[in-house]
Design goal:
With 446 residues, the chain is an alpha/beta fold. The chain is built from 15 helices and 18 strands. Helix 1 crosses helix 2, helix 1 packs across helix 4 and helix 9 runs parallel beside helix 10.
Length: 446
């Protein structure tokens, strides 16, 4: 059984992601990290899902059983776990979250001692250990060697300081009115706190998690409430986080959502103008709009494209010596301040851009025109190898002839096929999208 997807181990809690699986995965990861241990401590955080209690306790049991000491810090954003793991000199960090998924799902994400997500090769090593029952049994300790666990409630202050340090010291959010949707998730305390401490007037939406309402009609994937509230309260900006606050969606003063690629372009150009952009370029993914390529080229900057996933974006950033990149979906990485996508770090850079340029969000955050693009998610019964889908090669050749850019891929966490088409002619693109949807419905759901 393959454990790791595009972002850790993820699935429905209680069916795929059981307490037993969580404990065994924790033991396997602990065995791996023991071989590189410096402090014998592992940090655990989580979002606000009810199933987090079950999974956290199982992970603690697995780690202490093999002799690890565990530090539990409760609900915190994913990027906070990455930062605090390194800050507290832990051997590893674990975040319990299914990110933007609904409450029924949950997941386990791992970070190494430097706060970086694990490489694919390390994940494969942990999977091999997971499959080796004899090795896991031998890893059990006894007596005084059994690990201990303690809960710390005040580390949120460390992350708040780190966030505030990412915002230019000479600037203030005084006279800024911001609507913040925390998705009833892990950013429900830290988000409003940071913005208010920097001087903003903050109207907060969906900040009362009950274990089941995370991402429920709110947050980065459901912006209706945010858009309406920005207009209602005449706010300067709307900010939507997802359940673990590693993703952000920005809404302008007119209540309109800013496209993720336009946001990347605006921030990349801003950082370049300030002299803080490294590597003379930015990193996006294969999903990004062709308009972003053109905009970067016009400014003498390069656009590098990685595979989908903020881990892949970060790997390419490191390879090319670049400190800024992200995904169209709202995972934005500014590696001077964060080791992974950080919705609040990104939002603070957007606010700094608006203050310094003295522009409204509707103008500053739409610096170029997008090519017409459409992304459709198709529910599928089985994930048949894309290369083995009969008739697909001919379909794709036809798209190429018509000048339609295409990207076909499965979701790494759900039974969905993602179909992306892009073309200068929107009418032609929509017509071919209808054909592709019908084709895949027959090919994968018949």
């Amino acid at each position: 059984m393959k454990l790791f997807g595009t972002d850790g181990v993820r699935g429905e809690a209680g069916t795929f992601l059981t307490a037993e699986l969580a404990m065994k995965v924790a033991m396997a990861a602990g065995v791996y990290f023991k071989a590189h241990s410096k402090t014998n401590k592992i940090l655990i955080g989580k979002d606000t899902r009810r199933s987090g209690y079950m999974i956290e306790n199982a992970i603690v049991s697995g780690l202490t059983a093999i002799g690890y000491d565990v530090v539990q810090i409760g609900p915190m954003p994913t990027p906070a776990i990455a930062y605090i793991t390194e800050n507290m000199r832990c051997d590893a960090g674990i975040m319990i979250s299914a990110s933007h998924n609904s409450f029924e799902d949950n997941g386990i994400k791992f970070f190494d001692s430097c706060g970086d997500k694990l490489s694919h090769s390390v994940e494969e090593e942990i999977e091999k250990i997971y499959q080796n029952s004899e090795l896991l049994q031998d890893a059990h300790v006894r007596g005084k060697n059994i690990g201990k666990a303690k809960r710390i409630d005040d580390v949120i202050g460390r992350y708040i300081v780190q966030l505030k340090n990412s915002f230019p010291r000479e600037l203030s959010l005084k006279n800024m009115r911001i609507v913040l949707d925390t998705a009833n998730g892990a950013g429900y305390i830290v988000g409003p706190t940071v913005l208010e401490e920097l001087g903003a007037e903050v109207i907060v939406l969906h900040n009362k998690p009950d274990g089941f309402n995370i991402n429920d009609g709110c947050g980065a994937l459901h912006t209706k409430d945010l858009c309406e509230s920005v207009v209602k309260y005449r706010a300067d900006l709307g900010i939507a986080l997802d359940g673990d606050a590693d993703r952000v969606v920005i809404v302008d003063e007119n209540g309109e959502v800013i496209d993720g690629d336009q946001l990347l372009g605006a921030l990349g150009a801003y950082m370049n103008d300030r002299g803080t952009l490294k590597g003379s370029g930015i990193v996006s993914t294969v999903m990004s709009n062709k308009g972003l390529d053109d905009f970067m080229s016009q400014r003498g900057l390069k656009l590098f494209r990685s595979d989908v996933g903020d881990k892949n974006v970060l790997e390419m950033m490191k390879k090319e010596g670049i400190n800024f990149g992200g995904e169209q979906s709202g995972h934005v990485i500014i590696s001077d301040f964060a080791k992974t996508g950080d919705g609040l770090v990104c939002a603070l850079q957007v606010l700094a851009l608006l203050i310094e340029t003295k522009q409204k969000a509707s103008t500053a955050l739409r610096p170029f025109a997008l090519y017409p693009q459409k992304l459709v998610n198709i529910n599928v019964k089985t994930k048949k190898q894309i290369s083995e889908i009969e008739g697909l090669e001919e379909k794709l050749k036809e798209l190429d002839k018509k000048g339609i850019h295409h990207l076909i891929r499965y979701s790494g966490t759900e039974n969905k096929l993602r179909v992306l088409l892009e073309c200068r002619d929107a009418k032609k693109m929509n017509s071919y999208m209808d054909e592709m949807i019908e084709f895949f419905q027959k090919a994968l759901n018949a």
